[in-house]
Amino acid sequence: MKLGVMTVCLSSLSLDEACRYLKEQGVQQVEIGCGGSPGTAHCDARKMAGDPAAADEFAATVAKHGLTISAFAVHGNPLHPDQETAGTAHAEFEAAVLLAERLGVKTVITFSGCPGDCETSKYPNWAVATWPEDYEKIRRWQWEEKLIPYWKKAGAFAKAHHVRVALEIHPGFCVYNVPTMLRLREAVGDAVGANLDPSHLFWQGVDPVAAVHALRGCIYHFHAKDTYIDPYNTAVNGVLHTSGFADTAARPWLFRTVGYGHGAQTWRAIFSALQQAGYDGVISIEHEDALMSQKEGLEKAIRVLRDTMIFDAPTADVYWA
């Protein structure tokens, strides 16, 4: 496994400055936002798709610092009921795939998307309740009429360009847990896999170690981000309370830098499970800790990961056996 960082948290720095800083911290790979919610501070896939010289200059900047690109991140909602929003997300996704192909990057990360509840909807409808029965009707329509058809085509596009799609398992979108990830993969094939981020699993009550084992063979990327569950706020409000991310004192859970939600032993268990599952990709830090500055959060996460990650392939010679 390799130590990486999603550079979005360093958007105030130029790409050159960000790469120099990360190399000094011992980082090996970078995940680059190139559209959608990660923004375009360091890379704009749509612009670079029509400007090969700019794409090559971008790649050279990363390479001169001894770094490689783990993935392009273009998180959006291509199934949004607003056609303009959906169209933009789709165009950014396709541009990211073409840029990845040009630069030899094998992974593009995005969300699965979330449609509305019918053709005339204005907003997405994340229908996860069991009852009333209306929600099951919504889910069936979303999956059969929107989600599966879209990803059959988008996945085929990515595969034709030698790129795989890592869907971030994320509440608010159709793929939000292990069963939904596996269901979509079964329907559309191995063009899609998981960008596994434990922070989105912790607050749902999912054990990331169990998730890794269940997703063996289809984990294409990994985000290192932690979540702290506040026992007092949760006891009163439950985990579905909707106070804003900036209202840190009221939230039942908070995204935290690695080690500030769960201890080192939890992360050692996650990386051991990844090793058993045959994952040899990046462990990419995504910094979204509202209680720390970007650099402090990154540097603390890097220290924890250096101590808990497994960098080498397992020994082939089990001499003690």
What do you see in this structure?
Helices cover 41% and strands 15% of the residues. The chain has 321 residues and is α/β, with parallel strands linked by helices. It has one domain: TIM Barrel. The protein has an 8-stranded parallel β-barrel with strand order 1-2-3-4-5-6-7-10, surrounded by 4 helices. A two-stranded antiparallel sheet has the order 8-9.
Q: What's this, in brief?
A:
This protein has 321 residues and is of the alpha/beta class. It is 41% helix and 15% strand.
Instruction: Give the class from helix and strand content and strand pairing.
Output: alpha/beta
Instruction: Going across the biggest sheet, name each strand in turn.
Output: 1-2-3-4-5-6-7-10
CATH topology: TIM Barrel
CATH superfamily: Divalent-metal-dependent TIM barrel enzymes
Question: Roughly how much helix do the residues carry, as a percent range?
Answer: 40-55%
The CATH architecture is Alpha-Beta Barrel
What is the terminal separation in angstroms? 25 Å
Query: SSE string, helix = H, strand = E?
Result: EHEHHEHEHEHEHHEEHEHEH
List keywords for this structure.
321 residues, TIM Barrel, two-stranded antiparallel ribbon, 41% helix
What's the structural blueprint in terms of helices and strands?
Blueprint: E1 2-6, H1 15-24, E2 29-33, H2 45-49, H3 52-63, E3 68-73, H4 83-103, E4 107-110, H5 134-160, E5 164-168, H6 178-188, E6 192-196, H7 198-202, H8 208-214, E7 219-224, E8 226-229, H9 231-237, E9 253-256, H10 264-276, E10 282-285, H11 294-308
Parallel strand pairs: 1-2, 1-10, 2-3, 3-4, 4-5, 5-6, 6-7, 7-10
Antiparallel strand pairs: 8-9
